[in-house]
Write a structure and sequence with these properties.
Blueprint: E1 7-11, H1 13-20, H2 27-38, E2 42-47, H3 49-61, H4 64-73, E3 79-82, H5 86-98, H6 103-115, E4 119-122, E5 135-137
Parallel strand pairs: 1-2, 1-4, 2-3, 4-5
Length: 144
């Protein structure tokens, strides 16, 4: 993965989950993004929707420590959750009308487009259908 020398890097919910839970396959692929952000070259952003998406699993499992780990991640200086605005919802509706994206993914894509992210990190190939979005699908980076 080529990390931009500066700018916003958007992580969708699955990339956040892999980061917090240190997934053995995907964490090594995402870690350079976090290191670049820690070095202040980039800022990691995501939609506020990611908070909902990442907390469901820990809450279902009754894992308060993991839920807290997600909450803490979004309080770091190099991360920022972006609000879901009416403008984003309108753009997401346009994306839903033109692509096969489901509502949550359309919200992520619309958010990333509106802020002009330099890179969009996901493990969902459906985002490739979004024009103008520089998408990296983590499965494409795995070594066989």
């Amino acid at each position: 993965m080529t990390i931009p020398s500066s700018g916003l890097v958007y992580l969708d919910a699955n990339a956040i989950i892999y980061s917090v839970e240190k997934h053995p396959i995907y964490w090594p692929l995402i870690q350079p993004v976090w290191l670049a952000a820690k070095g202040k070259a980039n800022e990691i952003v995501s939609s506020e929707l990611t908070l909902l998406e990442t907390l469901v699993g820990p809450l279902q499992a009754g894992n308060a420590a993991l839920a807290t780990a997600y909450e803490q991640l979004f309080l770091q200086a190099q991360t920022r959750l972006l609000p879901i605005t009416q403008s984003i919802l309108r753009d997401a509706a346009q994306l839903r009308a033109k692509t096969k994206l489901k509502t949550p993914d359309a919200i992520h894509a619309a958010t990333a487009q509106q802020i002009g992210c330099a890179l969009f990190v996901t493990n969902d190939g459906g985002f490739r259908s979004v024009a103008g979005l520089s998408v990296v699908v983590l499965d494409d980076l795995k070594t066989p």
